[in-house]
Backbone:
């Protein structure tokens, strides 16, 4: 079974600085996808960024980027120029790809990292 | 654009009472639909998913059941609630027949069983 581990229950960063959230995963599949979701106090899950395992290039979305190390099964999220609105729980998630039999698979989530932004 | 709705937003129910949570999606056809539960301070756990009307797959055996009576409607039910059913329930959808299916979440339902 696939597992996702977030080893940092809580992280704190000064506004405008950069922070990196860690995520490792365990899978025997070759086709899969990785995601970072943000959960603000409203508790709605918001997609931050997505990475396809077959792509070597790290995904970026504005101030958010990932460091995808496939051999190490590591998928960290870097937030640049942190803003107060970035304060939230961040969840790393995994799902199998279509070619690994994951046609309608749900997501496997880590336990989350609580990100605090210090003004 | 696609939107996903869940209701009620908050629910307080006594132990042993029935439950019905509803999720509907607008702006898409034949979506894959999912129910997740988030216990306090925990990540999300997949409960059920559905690839079409009447097609339900259960991930975790428990006190809950799901149904999909219409293409864009997904219902989570229980005949008798337990204290352990308390939590935050999220519905999600994804486009079917796509290689990289991102899941998009609804606003969630907070359930407190007393």
Residues:
């Amino acid at each position: 079974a696939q597992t996702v581990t977030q080893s940092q229950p809580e992280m704190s960063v000064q506004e405008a600085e950069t922070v990196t959230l860690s995520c490792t995963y365990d899978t025997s599949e070759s086709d899969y996808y990785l995601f970072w979701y943000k959960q603000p106090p409203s508790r709605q899950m918001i997609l931050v960024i997505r990475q396809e395992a077959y792509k070597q290039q790290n995904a970026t979305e504005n101030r958010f980027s990932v460091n995808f190390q496939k051999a190490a099964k590591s998928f960290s999220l870097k937030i640049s120029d942190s803003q107060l609105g970035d304060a939230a729980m961040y969840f790393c998630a995994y799902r199998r790809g279509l070619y690994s039999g994951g046609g309608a698979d749900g997501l496997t989530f880590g336990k989350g990292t609580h990100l605090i932004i210090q003004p | 654009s696609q939107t996903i709705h869940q209701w009620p937003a908050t629910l307080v129910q006594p132990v042993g009472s029935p439950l019905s949570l509803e999720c509907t999606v607008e702006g898409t056809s034949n979506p894959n639909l999912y129910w997740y539960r988030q216990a306090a301070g925990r990540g999300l756990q997949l409960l059920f998913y559905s690839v079409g009307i009447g097609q339900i797959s259960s991930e975790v055996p428990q006190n809950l059941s799901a149904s999909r009576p219409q293409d864009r409607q997904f219902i989570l039910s229980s005949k008798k609630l337990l204290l352990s059913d308390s939590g935050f329930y999220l519905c999600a959808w994804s486009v079917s027949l796509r290689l990289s299916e991102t899941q998009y979440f609804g606003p969630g339902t907070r359930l407190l069983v007393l």
About this structure: Chain B has a mean pLDDT of 91. Residues 3-113 of chain B form a domain with the Immunoglobulin-like fold (CATH 2.60.40.10). Chain B is about 0% helix and 55% strand.
